[in-house]
Amino acid sequence: MYVQMQGINLAPKVKELEKRIEMLENVVKELQSSPRPKLGRPPKDAHGNERLEVDTAS
């Protein structure tokens, strides 16, 4: 005769955790494939000043 575990059925919890893991894996994969912003200082112009993307002419 085999002894079977009595008590709480963990299958629904396991299924929910597997869904969460799959969702997190998809998020990580999406973040890894998305282009990252460039880090560091902006390039300098001919006068030695840092170029900014802001238009200050107005």
Architecture blueprint of SSEs:
Blueprint: H1 11-33
Features:
rod-shaped, 0% strand, 58 residues, 1 helix, mainly alpha, single chain
3D structure, described in words:
The chain has one helix and no strands. The protein has 58 residues and is mostly helical. The protein starts with 10 loop residues before the first helix and ends in a 25-residue tail after the last helix. The model has no long low-confidence stretch (mean pLDDT 77).
Report the C-alpha radius of gyration, rounded: 27 Å
Characterize the biggest β-sheet.
none
Count of helical regions: 1
Helix content: 25-40%
What is the structure about, briefly put?
The protein has 58 residues and is an all-alpha fold.
